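Note to self: the last two entries modelled the partners one at a time, which told us nothing about the interface. This time every component goes in together.
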Amino acid sequence: MGRKLSTSELLITAGSAQVIDLLCWALLDRGDWVICEEPTFQGATGTMFNHGARFLTVPCDGEGMKVELLPERIERIRAAGEPIKFIYTIVNFHNPLGCDLSLQRRARLLEIARTYGILILEDDPYGWVRFEGEDIPSLFSMDDSGLVVFSSTFSKILAPGTRVAWCAGRDEIIRKMTVLKENVDTCTSVLAQAIVWEYCRLGYLDAFLPRIIDHYRKKRDGMETALKKHLSPDRVSWQKPGGGFFYWLTVPEIPAVQLLEKALEKKVAFVPGNAFYPTGSGGLNNFRMCFTFASTEMTDLGVRYIGEAIREFEQEPGHKKS
Amino acid sequence: MDKFWGSNFSNKALKVRPSPIREMLSVVNQPGMISFAGGMPAPDVFPVKEFHEGTEVFLRDGPSLLQYGTTEGFTPLKEYLSEWTAPRMGRKAALDEMLLTSGSQQVLDLMGWAMIDPGDYVITEDPSYLAALTAFHNHGSRFIGIPTDAEGMVVDMLPEKIEKARSEGKKVKFIYTIVNFQNPAGCTLSLERRKKLVEISNKYGVPIFEDDPYGYVRFDGDHLPSIFSLDQEGGVIYAGSFSKILAPGTRIGWCTGSRDIIRKLTVFKQSTDLCSSPISQALIYEYCKKGYLDAHLPKIVADYRAKRDAMEDSFKKYLPLDEVSWVKPEGGFFYWIHMPHIDAEDLFKKAIEKKVAFVIGAPFFANGGGEHNARINYTYSTPDTIEEGVKRLGEAMREMLGKA
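The predicted structure of the combined assembly is written out below.
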């Protein structure tokens, strides 16, 4: 975070879904715009949608959000006199893309946000689950003007069942989110917070995290191996993630939803890409695979089945090949 | 105002007021203060040891407790509740007629999502539970308040109010009632009025939201059947909570209703907090399964009954009886007093000087009122501090009246 936070800059929430819910309560009137990556975590945009958000989406590449596309998009909305309330970005090991927002792009994003006076919600549930490479400084730590709310959670670094997360930001926004939280659920489970605190205080958060990382790194490696082994690079492409939970695959000539049908026959499941596009269009030839849950053996088997499904699909009459 | 945040606040955020009761906590926690303010259970009736016994479940089922749970809630606990609440509910609810929530406050928020569009009307008792009024208000509702008397909401006023509202093009979305030992008024909706309410609900097609956090904390008299049990049309949603019958720190409540509303609430819950803590739900289940819910509840009831009695006696002894009236609550957490010639806010300031705190009536009224009412909690104190606190309150009242 770049510094020690004071307690008035922190709010503990019932999971990170609640951070988004509370920020939306605090900022969104129906019809307001939210800027987000495309694709992005559909759980977050679902919550924003319930609060009446409209989505201004920005495509991504291997370095995350293509921030250079922002000014033009922002100006278009501003010219129509409509409010843009915040930028939602998943900065590390993006769900579903798996990429990081590069340091350079973080600096540029902050510049743009400051220029146009737009707030940023920096969502970072996966940042501590890094397998290799260097940590990239948070947006929060790179900004002095206070326009960033940072959000993270114990879900991936301890366990999701605790339902304890947190956000950090200027007193003013934290205070407002707190007041709104009173009427949403009164307070986060004291029991859960105390249990998490004991765990941390006893040194387990630090001691156990490397084991979590190690475990997931092996699974990531297992999936990378399986993908290379069973899938043909002229049919499927992907970028190996340096951390987090997900692979994002591109299958240019195959509709992911139909591929899923075939895969399900073989008892393997993934999420077709379209689910992650808040405006509803896009991702038709993409899908997301989570590697953290299955064992390496099951992953190999599953990816093999996907490879078979792809080949079967291509052999079907009427299927066009490039 | 901060150039980034304040200038970007939503309209709701600009209008929302923090709970005056929560805001009072710093005043109320001053040393030497006797607080009749917060609606807090007494920590000495928390079943700490019994609850702790359940932690063995971590060693047995650790991985599943630490994983994401379903939004619908922990099935064994639902099954237990379905059975345990059946006598009051009139039948065993099916699992898909129930949702476990993060406290019953969450039921209020989810009902707001599912039912309220900005400008819609909600019928409530007048006064009603502050955090419910605020939750509905945040979703954009306006209020039609129905006065209460010793038998609860004066339901006979409903048909006229509903017809008038409809003739003005207003949409009345549901009737919100805190059916037993109402917070703040302490009253309980009589059986006759429950039946009448169901009749009216069915006739006008306005569902009933029956909020019942205190129903199991009854000191005298007989338990009344829930409104849910009196309705055959599926137009009632019932909300319950472990906060007063076990402990509030667990943050687990539940609601029971017809499948379509439960499903809708569940979908909205996905977007607000994904799932309630599987750990809390499992621990509560262990506690219940071991028989502690049934075994311990009478101790809670006995403890609070003694405090209610202490307060009743103290009121009679120390308050200016021709200037203060109240209805003795048959259960729950609060006294609601009426003092026609004393302004509650002024009394509050004087009371604080004498080191006794309570909550003034006004925040509990959606459309104004309550200047001569006060809510007095007894559960948090001991019988001795109750007597001392009421003595101070009586002095404060007499000084106010002396000045008038």
